[in-house]
Design a protein that fits this description.
It contains two helices and 16 strands. By secondary structure, the protein is mainly beta. The strands form three sheets. Strands 1, 2, 5, 7, 8, 10, 13 and 16 form an eight-stranded mixed sheet that branches. The radius of gyration is 17 Å and the shape is globular. The two termini are 19 Å apart.
Length: 271
């Protein structure tokens, strides 16, 4: 395993990313289109038998409005909610030790594509043994047609949104991710998007870009000063680490086939 310090600015259950034109939600139905999608996933070994579960994930365009909460999927945590520690206590956002789609800090992963805004990108997220590790795997195809161009896996950060929808990560120096990329290209760029209280528009976020070489696990560290405000309200607004709400790992901006494994994600402090 190698560590990549980035200096650029800018078990098996699956979530299928589909759109409904009425409310912008990804959801599964009992209709024909859903049957086709579920059949496809069964062929890939993503769902089936007693482990099959359906999810509804409420999101806005891009990574959703800051703090917008998805409906709870059918499934259960390994332990009581009160037994979880918020991600700022030990810095761990997810070490993949809980039942998917739950994180080890008590929040939940959701899948997002550009289809709610008219795009045609598609994909799914699953928890599986991937290249020798327990990992979230984002698999799909990014298309630029109809002014689209992204797929992502995302999670809110607050353990108790009824008390506070944001967390304070100001005691940390950045985000550390361990990832594995598979695809037709030897190297690919990906983004991490952060939402804060300032991100009141659907397309606003703080973004950092990093590159991954294919076919090896790599640990990427993104310092806070690498995140640049994008979109209305935040282009000229500094990143406020005391109001972090949501984090997304995004394949964006170019046509690509994506298989991206994530085995851990956490905040880090400089030694």
């Amino acid at each position: 395993q190698s560590i990549l310090n980035v200096d650029l600015p800018k078990k098996d259950v699956a979530i299928t990313m589909m759109e409904t034109s009425k409310n912008g939600h990804f959801e599964t139905h009992d209709g024909k289109e859903d049957n086709k999608a579920m059949a496809f996933l069964r062929q890939r070994g993503k769902v089936g038998g007693a482990s099959a579960q359906q999810y509804i994930n409420a999101v806005g365009s891009d990574e959703g409005l800051a703090g917008k909460q998805g409906k709870s999927p059918s499934g259960s945590l390994n332990k009581a909610k009160a037994a979880f520690k918020e991600c700022t206590v030990h810095g761990i956002i997810d070490d993949m030790s809980e039942i998917f789609p739950f994180t080890s800090s008590g929040t939940q992963w959701a899948g997002v594509t550009d289809r709610m805004m008219g795009g045609v990108s598609n994909g799914d997220i699953s928890r599986q043994t991937f290249q020798g590790r327990n990992a979230n795997v984002l698999h799909g195809k990014v298309s630029l047609k109809n002014k689209g161009g992204f797929i992502q896996m995302a999670t809110d950060l607050s353990l108790n949104p009824s008390i506070s929808k944001s967390i304070d990560a100001s005691n940390f120096d950045g985000i550390e991710l361990t990832l594995f990329f598979e695809g037709p290209d030897n190297k690919q760029d990906f983004n991490v998007h952060l939402k804060t209280d300032a991100c009141t528009r659907q397309f606003s976020s703080y973004r950092a870009t990093f590159s991954l070489k294919k076919s090896s696990w790599r640990t990427v560290r993104l310092r806070w000063d690498k995140f640049i405000g994008f979109g209305a309200c935040v282009e000229l607004t500094p990143l406020d680490l005391s109001t972090l709400r949501r984090l997304g790992i995004v394949a964006i901006g170019k046509e690509m086939d994506v298989t991206l494994g994530l085995s851990s994600i956490r905040f880090f402090r400089d030694d």
